[in-house]
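Need a sequence for this fold. Nothing fancy.
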């Protein structure tokens, strides 16, 4: 059964139970009010008969003779039935409308006719008429000398109660019907967003289009929040899916270039270049370079994949000045016609992974060498400032166009693809940035076309939180 129908059923059932309880209460209250009105009247009638008998000159003989005077007002009316009994149960007088029938005695009275309290009972005559009967003692000088019984038909009250019952029943049925219809409409309105969620997610599954979003009706309610959560999740899935697609496209594109070069050189060798020593050496070198580039790229990709999966760093105190000196020497060896200089160098220690930090700095230095034409200059500096360690790699190279600056740290992004980039994979800066961030730092870049670029790595200094050393 659908939630909507279940909700409607629950709602209607609860209302039905409430209506039954309220109906039963109303019915019994009305019933007891009507009965007490009748009882009051019966009581005053019984009082009247009692007084009449007491007023007789000799009530004892009245009772003994078995002839009492009944109040004239109601004897012939059909409203009240009157019966006077002696204490032994014999009838002294019956009102005519009883036509010889005896009124039943209240159960309690059958054993104790001399009881000095009035009793009420409901009885059914042979004719099927329901009667309310009061049985009251006739007292004289504190003694019970007989019993007066006055009865009235309950048919009027029964009619009234039947009317009340009908009204309650019809009213309840109408209320239940309205509740069922209204409840169903309300449930449908409340569950409409769920329908939208189901339809949209179904559509997304069918079309595999993760760019769709579920419309949010009321952002503040529970379903609105659920919808927004699902939309956020869709957004994340969408960007992950796109990133994955981009990665697959980039990787296949990047691998195709070296493979094409290798394939071309192999063809060249097969066509006879083996005999020409210089050509053969060139072809073999190209094959070797491209293979090395592919290997670098694959190990870079592997590292980034591990980084995505939460690769653990082995942190220990690292002397950044010593590390920078190492990198500086390596840069000098790699530099052909570019000058590499060491600028200001403070002493500084960071909590870090030496190999990763070296890789970070080398990536920046390799880029600087790559994008700085002959005659240029590369300067490495290290400064401590306010608990931060700033390592800068500045070059006087080609610079980076402003529109590319926000993207250069993205995987496989290359500014100006026409520029040759021997050995480049477009992953160097992504890795550098991941390493900096994994150490609680970041990388800033400033660049001017034709004038050069400066990459600055900011790292938190070891123990800096306990005070600047
Ligand atoms: P690549 O392997 O292409 O160098 P990177 O991720 O290391 O990949 O760098 C991304 C892009 O940023 C490069 O393609 C280049 O356009 C630009 N770039 C990086 N460093 C420099 C630099 N020192 N000077 C000029 N451009 C740079």
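Here you go.
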């Amino acid at each position: 059964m659908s939630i909507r129908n279940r909700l409607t059923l629950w709602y209607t059932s609860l209302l039905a139970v409430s209506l039954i309880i309220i109906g039963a209460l109303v019915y019994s209250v009305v019933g007891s009010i009507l009965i007490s009105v009748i009882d009051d009247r019966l009581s005053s009638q019984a009082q009247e008969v009692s007084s009449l008998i007491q007023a007789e000159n000799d009530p004892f003989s009245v009772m003994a003779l078995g002839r009492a005077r009944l109040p004239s007002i109601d004897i012939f009316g059909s409203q009240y039935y009157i019966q006077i009994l002696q204490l032994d149960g014999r009838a002294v007088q019956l009102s005519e409308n009883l036509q010889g029938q005896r009124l039943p005695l209240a159960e309690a009275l059958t054993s104790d006719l001399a009881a000095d309290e009035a009793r009420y009972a409901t009885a059914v005559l042979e004719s099927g008429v329901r009667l309310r009967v009061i049985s009251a003692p006739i007292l004289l000088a504190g003694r019970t000398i007989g019993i007066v019984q006055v009865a009235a038909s309950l048919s009027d009250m029964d009619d009234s109660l039947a009317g009340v019952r009908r009204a309650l029943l019809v009213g309840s049925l109408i209320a239940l019907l309205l509740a069922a219809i209204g409840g169903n409409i309300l449930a449908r309105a409340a569950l409409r967003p769920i329908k939208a969620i189901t339809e949209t997610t179904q559509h997304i599954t069918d079309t595999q289009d993760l760019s769709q979003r579920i419309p949010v009706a009321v952002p503040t309610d529970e379903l609105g929040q659920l919808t927004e959560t699902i939309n956020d999740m869709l957004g994340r899935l969408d960007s992950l899916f796109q990133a994955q697609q981009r990665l697959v496209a980039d990787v296949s594109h990047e691998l195709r270039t070296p493979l094409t070069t290798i394939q071309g050189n192999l063809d060249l060798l097969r066509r006879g270049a083996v005999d020409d020593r210089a050509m053969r050496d060139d072809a073999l070198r190209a094959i070797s370079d491209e293979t090395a580039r592919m290997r670098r790229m694959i190990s870079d990709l592997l590292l980034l994949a591990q980084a995505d999966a939460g690769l653990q760093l082995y942190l220990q105190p690292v002397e950044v000045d010593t590390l920078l000196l190492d990198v500086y020497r390596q840069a000098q060896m790699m530099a052909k016609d570019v000058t590499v200089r060491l600028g200001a160098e403070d002493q500084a220690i960071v909590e870090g992974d030496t190999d990763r930090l070296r890789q970070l700095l080398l990536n920046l230095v390799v880029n600087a060498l790559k994008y700085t034409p002959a005659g240029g200059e590369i300067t490495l500096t290290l400064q401590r400032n306010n608990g931060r360690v700033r390592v800068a790699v500045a070059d006087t190279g080609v610079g980076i166009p402003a529109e590319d600056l926000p993207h250069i740290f993205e995987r496989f992004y290359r500014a100006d693809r026409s520029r040759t980039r021997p050995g480049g994979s477009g992953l160097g800066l992504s890795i550098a940035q991941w390493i900096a961030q994994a150490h609680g730092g970041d990388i800033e870049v400033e660049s001017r076309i034709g004038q050069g670029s400066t990459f600055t790595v900011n790292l938190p200094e070891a123990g800096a939180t306990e005070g600047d050393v």
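For context: The CA atoms of residues 400 and 449 lie 6 Å apart.
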